[in-house]
Specification:
The protein has ten helices and 30 strands. It has 464 residues and is an alpha+beta fold. The chain folds into three domains: 212 residues, Thrombin, subunit H; 97 residues, PDZ domain (Pdz3 Domain, Roll), CATH 2.30.42.10; 115 residues, Pdz3 Domain (Roll). The strands form six sheets. Strands 24, 25, 26, 27, 28, 29 and 30 form a seven-stranded antiparallel beta sheet that branches. Strands 1-3-4-7-6-5 form a six-stranded antiparallel barrel. 35% of the residues are buried.
């Protein structure tokens, strides 16, 4: 009888899965479901993925040069509009896009916004196309930490690549990006992924891949679409973004990274007021705690609250006084501030070829440290080693105040003065240039004689 019982138990043991076997089968089934979700999301968006190949014109090293870069984009309308990053589209002289079916197609820049790092392109087919495959733009406000996402793009120029990961953070704040919070993900985002879509499990675009951290593992960032839908719409329809400007710099009340805390339950700290700005003219001061703008409260307790407040500032009606309610010395003071248009965001660049130098227009929003010393004019962007400008003592970030007797207030002033000097006869090609070096006045004497035959040859090569 005992043998029968033992035999029965042995048979039962053989028929019963060992501990954990059921979990393994369930895990296998779950993995299959995850794979199916990935494939489904891929199929929704991959046909709309674009490999973007701009040729950029750059002036960084003291001379004008062209360079080929690689990026990504995603078609988001049936008539061929493409969403990508500003840093992919900027400075481009031509753009070629490679579509999912491997057709090469030129594109033009419809609009760019450096402050959110977004750009919209339009595909230019040689023959009319009735319909482009396009991706659906989803609601990134609904994503949560731990959600599965796909990052699509062309890392390092390897076109049509896909990586898989999870959302690590939904509201990461990064300094230097005034209007964006970021989706952080461990899906691989590398150079070339820029402008490509971050896709949720439903196959909807919830972000635009933009940043990775060099030397870090599994840390990438995408721009969440729900925060920039208005920017996308304006770039698509108007080609530009018009923002209001007051001239204040904001700081969170509780800045944990700097171990600085202001004992206030609401508001935001005004940490700096730019001279000659609307805020300075109105009487706002660094150290004021802004509580409300008109009837709208301001909440800047943590740094992740700052982009929303800056967007609130940017939407203020220009040319109209707005009541800024600030706490100063323990009392609430109401100060009317009249915002103005923010104006130009990027300065023009120019090559002073025979000097071996490039210059750039001063724009207060792009180069506030330079604009602190001089509000308008040009500064040295690059000076070639061995070139006339560097030999004379000019260096990057020097502000050019005068060329000869011509005061330089605009880029046109510099161009006119430089081109006039270039027409001087041999033996007379020299000039005194007055500059500011870190705000300190200095004189630079430039001699720029060159062999006439070499000049003519260089001009012919440039025309080719």
């Amino acid at each position: 009888m005992r043998r029968i019982v033992v035999g029965s138990l042995l048979l039962l043991a053989l028929m019963t899965p060992p501990a954990g076997a059921q979990e393994v089968r369930d895990s296998s089934r779950t993995k299959s479901q995850i794979e199916q979700a990935i494939l489904k999301a891929r199929d929704h968006v991959m046909p709309a993925l674009v490999f973007v190949k701009p040729v950029q014109e750059v002036y960084d090293w003291g001379q004008k040069a062209k360079r080929q870069i690689f990026g990504s984009g995603v078609i988001f309308t049936p008539d061929g509009y493409v969403l990508t990053n500003n840093h992919v589209a900027e400075k481009s002289t031509s753009i070629v896009c490679i579509l999912a079916d491997r057709r090469e197609m030129p594109a033009e820049v419809v609009g760019r916004d450096p402050e959110t790092d977004l750009a919209v392109l339009r595909l230019l087919p040689e023959e009319a196309i009735d319909f482009f495959p396009f991706a659906r733009l989803g609601d990134s406000s609904k994503i949560q930490i731990g959600d599965f996402v796909l990052a699509l793009g062309s890392p390092y120029g390897f076109e049509r690549s896909l990586s898989f990961g999870v959302v690590s953070s939904t509201d990461r704040y990064l300094e230097g990006t005034p209007y964006n919070l970021w989706i952080q993900t461990d899906a691989a985002i590398n150079p070339g992924n820029s402008g490509g879509p971050l896709v949720n499990a439903s196959g909807e675009v919830v972000g635009i891949n933009s940043l990775g951290i060099r030397g870090a593992d599994n840390i990438g960032f995408a721009i969440p679409l729900h925060e920039v839908r208005a920017v996308i719409a304006d770039l698509w329809k108007r080609g530009k973004i018009e923002r209001a400007w007051t001239g204040v710099t904001l700081q969170a009340l509780k800045d944990f990274r700097r171990s600085q805390t202001i004992e206030e339950k609401e508001g935001v700290l005004i940490s700096h007021v730019m001279p000659d700005s609307p805020a300075a003219t109105a009487g706002l001061l660094a150290g004021d705690v802004l509580k409300r703008i008109d009837d709208r409260p301001v909440n800047g307790i943590y740094d992740r609250n700052l982009p929303a407040i800056r967007r609130q500032f940017a939407r203020l009606e220009k040319g109209t006084p707005h009541a800024f309610h600030v706490k100063r010395d323990g009392k609430i003071v109401t100060i009317p501030v009249t915002p103005v248009g923010k104006g130009k965001q990027e300065g023009e660049e120019y090559e002073a070829k025979i000097w071996g130098m490039t210059v750039k227009e001063i724009v207060r929003h792009e180069n506030p440290a330079i604009a602190f010393f001089r509000k308008q004019g040009v500064y040295v962007l690059g000076a070639q080693w061995g070139g006339k400008a560097r030999q004379a003592g000019l260096a990057e970030r020097d502000i050019i105040v005068k060329v000869g007797e011509t005061e330089i207030k605009t880029m046109e002033d510099f161009k006119t003065a430089f081109e006039k000097l270039g027409k001087l006869g041999r033996g007379d090609r020299r000039v005194i240039v007055r500059v500011l070096k870190s705000g300190i006045p200095a004189l630079v004497f430039i001699e720029f004689e060159r062999d006439a035959e070499a000049e003519e040859k260089a001009e012919e090569e440039e025309k080719k």
